[in-house]
Structure formats: C-alpha cells, structure tokens
C-alpha cells in the first residue's frame, strides 16, 4: 500500500509541475524517476521511451504508466496515470463550467485562441523537421492535407492516414534509417495479458462505431468518438485536436469558439494535452461527460501499452512496422497543417491585430524559447488589453 501511495504522490507532483508538452514531460520524468529516485536505470528508461514513441497515443502519459507498472505492477501503472493526469482534468473541467455557464463576456479568451495558433504552428515546424524530411514524406503530408480540407467526411482523415501507412509499409520500409534499438527487456508482463489487451483494443475499435450508430445514444457516441480519437493519434498530443474537432464540431455538440478556447486553455495547464477531452466532455454533458471522455480517450493508451509490452522485442525489429509508422507519421503533419487552418486560423485570425499578436506569440515561443505556460499568460494579458 505504501508503494502505491508513493507512486501516486510522486506522479501527482509531476502532474502539477510538468508544463511544456510531451518532450518536456519526458525531461521531468527523467529527472524525477531516473536521476532522483532511481526507480529505473537509464537503459530501462530509454527502452520505455522508445516503445511509447513507437505506439500511437499520448507518449508521455504512456511513459508514466510504464514507470508505474515497473514500480508497482498494473496497479502501479494505473495509479501513476491518475496522479499525473488528475490536476489538468480538474482544472479543465472547472474551466468548462465557468466558461460555458456564464453570461459574462470573456473577450480576453481571444488571447487564448491566439496562443493556440502559435503553439500548433510551433508543433508543425518541430514535427515537420523530423517526420517530413524527404520529398516522399512531404508529398504524403500534402496528400493528407488536401484530403482533409477538400473532402467533407467524418472519417476522411483516418482513411488518409491508413493510405499513407500502407504506402509506407510497401515503399518506405527499406529507406528507414532510424531503427529503434532496444538492448534488453525491462517489462515483465504475461503474454496472456498482451493478447487480452490487444483483443479488447481492436474489439472496441470495431464494435463501438457500429453499436453507437445503431442505438443513437449520446453517451455511446461520445465514448466511441473519444476512444477512436485516442486510438489513432500518432506524433503527439497536438494531433488529437483535428480528430476531436471532426468528431464534435460538425455535429454541433460543441461550438467552434468553445472548442478552440478549450484547446487554448489546455495549453495553460500542466500534464497531458489529452485532457482537452475532459473539457469537451464536460461542456457537452456535465461532470459525467467529462469523466467518460477522460476514461475513453486514455483507455487505448493502456490497452496498447499492456498489449505490446510482452511482445516488444519481436515487434521492434520488424521493418514493415517501421515503414507503416513512417508513412502515418508523415500524414500526421498534413493533418496538423489542416487543423491550423481550419478551425484554428479561420476562427481566430480575423484582423491585422490578430495576425500581429499571434505572430508575436509564435516568435516568443519558437525563437525566444519562452515556456508554453508563460506564452499562455502573455496571451491572456494581450486579450485583456486589446479585446
């Protein structure tokens, strides 16, 4: 019991202090878990980070779950996740309540929307350098960008990503030079758990859309949408933005303004960006909706991590898996660029002043290396002063 309590409070401390996005989170984790507490050594940590970067889902959250699992088994993984995620979930659900249930004019929130422009633009540049560094991967990103913006279909982005993944599986497997090399296995989970977790992951991914469409139940539709979004995110938490936008904005469940405002607010809090789902769920259906959204969007991360850990040594050496991931990763950049334009840019940049302020925030973030929490604070101040 003491071990579980210790795991929880260490993760809670990180959940309160970990600003700056997934890459920064991994730095916080390294300092706390490897350097300070020595819960695992550097090789074990690098093994875990490599695995979580290979899987779809929120990489930093999966690393936290993995560390908890190494320290305290499956229960430790769950407790570590709760501690790290709880602060941002609570803050964003409270923000949703104050924002959506108030008649006051929150003109300063335009500043948060400007922050979203700057942060997503920075994410595109950072990811583009790593994931679209050849003519082929640039064309794949452009292909997904075109389809995402010109075809009005709920599943077009998923279809486009699958196409780029298949292309990568066939044509990119021989060009991959960044093979993930893991020297030893640090995770002792039974293969039976792996089979059960992976079976449940694919069962839910297949059955939920069918059941939700047949029953037309809001709660089932929400669970399906959040679960599917959490299952298809490659390349970091920012990618969940366009997926959630496609699931909820066109259906009128959340307005574009509320959506962008919530996404901008998610930048202001520490912890995983996936808790943006908590804000959306709370806005649509109150506390129950926020809780359901949080569980649904993170559930794939658990199922995939517990499903792959027992088989990772075999998977990591598969060149076809590498090619598939490389193709999808290039497509992710196209999705992000499409999301930067619609809905972020189209609903935020409506005047010269908007463009000037968003550009200033971007420069402070990208070139002056100000932390994201300070950019959020500056954005709010700009909103108060100019709007």
TrEMBL record:
Family from the record: Belongs to the chromate ion transporter (CHR) (TC 2.A.51) family.
Residues passing through the membrane, by range: 6-30, 78-99, 105-125, 132-149, 193-214, 291-312, 324-341, 361-386
Name the record gives this protein: Chromate efflux transporter
Subcellular location as annotated: Cell membrane
Pfam family, one: Chromate_transp
Primary site of residence: membrane
Keyword Cell membrane: yes
Membrane topology designation: Multi-pass membrane protein
Key words of the record: Cell membrane, Membrane, Transmembrane, Transmembrane helix
